[in-house]
Amino acid sequence: MSKFDVTVIGAGAIGTSVAYHLCEKGLKVALIDRGDIASGSSSHCDAVALICDKSPGLDTQMGDASIRHYKELAEKFSYDFEFDQKGCLYVCETESEYEAAAKYAAQQAGDGYDMSMVDGKILSEMEPFMAKDLIGGIWTPGDAAMSPYKVCFAFTAEAKKLGLKVFSYTHIYGIIQDEKGHVTGVDTDQGVIETDRVVNCGGVWAPDIGSMVGIEIPIQPRKGMNLISEQMERICWHKILEFGYMMSKFDDINFKRNVSPLVEEYNVAFNIEYTHANNILLGGYRGFRGFDIRSELEAMKAIAERGLRFFPCLENVNCIRSYAGVRPFVKDHLPIVSHVDEVPGYYIAAGHEGDGICLSPITGKLMAQLITGEGVDFDISKLRFSRFREQVAMGA
Amino acid sequence: MSEFFPDDMIVCRCEEVTVAEIKAAIGEGARDVTGVKRRVRAGMGLCQGRTCEKLVQAILCRELGAAADQVGASSSRPPVRPVPFGQLAKGVVE
């Protein structure tokens, strides 16, 4: 087997994008996964790229750049990943939520993003089947949806045209380093893959790939769960979330919602979207359950209850399936897109929690820029792996 | 399989997926029921693979020369049968 410039580990939304962007730079790339393409978190999630759920600053900047990049890729790729710039509504139940939403939208608009407030009347024109008592919401027309696993298939198919070698269903025994610690290869059940560099795109499993070179990557699995409806006539036209969703995402923003104990217990925040095949995806719940991705009946009840509050017409619509997956959670809610000081030739692109699909294109682009040594599109020093060591040193 | 099932035969009735499409998914790298499902939607419809799963498994075994236990099954997920969201929310299925 000939030598590769870079070996990417993990064929999810991040790994396939990193592999594609590296191939685009003319590098010789291998992509390894222990299973199929998109067999982990990227096929157990929902399907959106939003800026309206991002913190102002770097988070929004990356989201916005990623959506723009998605749009270009959708036009360029022959593999259709169902890109749909449907726009997003973030809806408010109370005046105090509306106030906070307006403040947030004004800040984002001030930073130059297309985000504005709509009142209850416009809301009911945009979404005639939605509950009529909502106060209004944030409208972000640029937000988009796509099929998350088709994104992975698309990146892989397009990268193969540029010479990518895919090793699916390949187990890794270890990462080989020279006497100076520099990466020289990956030992697998298909033989040794010689390589100058490795990019760990293992998502929730990234810590396992980290321990192979003696580093500790602080990513934990955080469970998410959704319900799927039968195929049906359109009842919603945009991605819609409740503003209380912020609450389940950021522990420091604490809106008190008027919800049942069950909804509270399962940290359920309403969100809905239609799919390309005309199913409805209804979410969502997040919780820490280790790697257990079984569906939880009580969480299903809570998601259905919360869904009905916003879309009463779901009452007689059939739920045909539930699904759950694990998201790579990092305590400071920022992904790791970085080299590793201790191990020359070792890189990490992981820890995007619920934003892996959204940030897939931009992460791939940035990682390819980091590896080829070109300038990166924006300052990503906050995403460095060394931040965890600094946080420990500072006693954080 | 092909001598029994023509390429244009529909395997997944809900999503109208043919033998030829399933073979193409296998050609793209699918090695199990879930891999086929994600590529061509076989088993993603109203019946959740009740009708087609065994046929998809048979096609996989035939194309890959694999044994039945190597091609897997779709993950079992509730609800067991379609249930209206209204009843699910109440936790009462009539």
Describe it for me?
The complex is a heterodimer of chains A (396) and B (94). With 396 residues, chain A is of the alpha/beta class. Helix content of chain A is 31%, strand content 25%. Chain A is globular, with a radius of gyration of 21 Å. Chain B is mainly α and 94 residues long. Chain B is built from four helices and three strands, in the order ββαααβα. In chain B, a hairpin with a 4-residue loop joins β1 (10-12) and β2 (17-18). The chains are: A alpha/beta (396), B mainly alpha (94). The A-B interface holds A 36-39, 43, 149, 153, 166, 168-169, 227, 229-231, 277, 282, 295, 297, 300-301, 304-305, 307-308, 314-323 and B 15, 28-32, 34-35, 38-39, 41, 44-46, 48, 75, 77-79, 82-86, 88-91. β16 of chain A pairs antiparallel with β3 (83-84) of chain B, so a sheet runs across the interface.
Tell me the layout of helices and strands.
The complex is a heterodimer of chains A (396) and B (94).
Chain A: E1 4-9, H1 13-24, E2 29-32, E3 48-49, H2 58-76, E4 88-92, H3 95-110, E5 116-119, H4 120-126, E6 136-140, E7 144-145, H5 148-161, E8 165-167, E9 172-177, E10 183-188, E11 191-200, H6 206-211, E12 220-229, E13 239-242, H7 245-249, H8 261-265, E14 271-274, E15 280-287, H9 297-310, E16 318-329, E17 336-339, E18 346-350, H10 356-372, H11 387-393
Parallel strand pairs in A: 1-2, 1-11, 2-8, 4-13, 11-18
Antiparallel strand pairs in A: 3-7, 4-6, 5-6, 9-10, 10-11, 12-15, 12-16, 13-14, 14-15, 17-18
Helix pairs in contact in A: 1-5, 1-10, 2-10
Chain B: E1 10-12, E2 17-18, H1 19-27, H2 33-40, H3 53-64, E3 83-84, H4 85-90
Antiparallel strand pairs in B: 1-2
